[in-house]
Amino acid sequence: MEKLSDEILVRIFSFLSARDICRCSKVCSGWYRLANDFHLWRKLFIESFDKFISDSSYYKNVFPTQWKELFIMRSNWLSGHCHVQSLHKKAITPEKTEPTKIVCLKISKCGGSVLASVNQDSKLVHLWSLIHKKSLHVVRCESVVGCVDFGNEGSQSLLAIGLYSNKFSIWDFHNGRIILSRKNITEVTRDQMESPRDTGLPPATAVCRVNLVDNKLATVTSQCVVKVWELDFNQPGRISCYCLHTLTTFKPRCSVLDIQLKNGENDVWSVSISHAAEVLENWNLIGFQTVRFQGHSLVEEDTGVNFKEESVDNEEAFLIAKFQTWMGPQKEQMGSRTSVSCLSISPCTKLVTSGQNDNTITLWDTATQSCRHTLFGHTGAVTCTDVDMHKVVSGSNDRTVKVWSLENGDCQLTLPGDHTSGVSSVTFNDHWVISGDSSGEIKVWDFAVNSLSVLQSLELPSQQSQAL
């Protein structure tokens, strides 16, 4: 074996499993160096996980030294191997108020190392470093924050913030300030701006969901009024915007909803929304619809025909008619016999997950609008879900976070280290699963380095906050 060249040894190692390659690395320093050759780990990664990679450009962005780390991380996801470190919350002194429950968590889409968190009835957005497990910034807003969303590659330094005061704002990381603040609906009554009495629900015009993709922003109010905005980045340090489309369901107040923007071929965009509303006692209907558009024009989904007319009057008449029917009757109503607490649309928009108060999760096929799987395993009401192309992560009042397979609906793992109270929000990407609970605690599971930490609440320095 000593006379064999490095090329031949690497070729021999390529027929071994990952476990056997790791054993070979312990033989001597020479074998250790060869066992870490990136060609070996790239081959193992493609053989094991290529079916989970939906974007062909994924491989172009991987450095040679990353293949082994990526293989280990993906293996941890499938096997559930995590090293758990229990960190206790900071003691609450009489002068401090205990944090309220976490209602929104979002991980940055580019780089994926920044977390935004929002507490219930709070005017603050906390930004955290997931690498260093510490606070980066705190954004102070003029009213209660309803939702946040990070931009993607075309708007990666931006954070969209939806407010209860019928406004949305854009926060710029580079400048450390708000660069856009805009009313969402221009003409509203005072009653619409106020929260319904004794219900605990947000105002009718509260922006409760935002989705920022490239230069497009989608906003949704509590009454399911959807607006799509075009953002103009031409002026350095400033953003201007104008409304492309206003869509409405003409339905009663929705209890939960989710929205997703997608950029398709030939700059044809789509906006998809799923919503749930209680129509009878213990009976909830779930809806899902998609509208495709190109600029100011709507595009017929079946034929790809652009319906923009030469006459402005005709165009406006068509758009008004289209807006009133875009959430029209469905092929089959997706119904739940128990209260729906959360909804998530998959990135491919072919599936919607709903969490129910009867401890179950339902996977709905958006094409047939029928149930694909019902997931059993939680012992408390499912309060939050998040979904990607292949798995669902869910949180429950039973204080656990679980990972499920979209393919067969099986529970792949229950993350170790239960919360001390019911889980209220979850989010994840390839590296991390982050969950928040009703006591304001945030837990981070790091699948790259097998660690678990707890992010503590942060004192708000006056010079660190910004007013909208």
Automatic annotation (TrEMBL):
Coiled coil: none
Cross-referenced PROSITE patterns: FBOX (PS50181), WD_REPEATS_2 (PS50082), WD_REPEATS_REGION (PS50294)
Chain ranges of the F-box domain: 1-44
Keywords: Repeat, WD repeat
Organism annotation: Stylophora pistillata
Gene encoding the protein: fbxw1
InterPro entries with a match to the protein in the record: F-box-like_dom_sf (IPR036047), F-box_dom (IPR001810), Quinoprotein_ADH-like_sf (IPR011047), WD-F-box_domain-protein (IPR050995), WD40/YVTN_repeat-like_dom_sf (IPR015943), WD40_PAC1 (IPR020472), WD40_rpt (IPR001680)
Highest taxon of the lineage: Eukaryota
Source species taxonomy: Eukaryota, Metazoa, Cnidaria, Anthozoa, Hexacorallia
Cross-referenced SMART domains: FBOX, WD40
Record's keyword annotation contains Repeat: yes
Entry protein name: Beta-TrCP
Residue stretches of each WD repeat: 333-374, 375-414, 416-446
Keyword Electron transport: no
PANTHER family xrefs: F-BOX DOMAIN-CONTAINING PROTEIN (PTHR14604:SF4), WD40 REPEAT PF20 (PTHR14604)
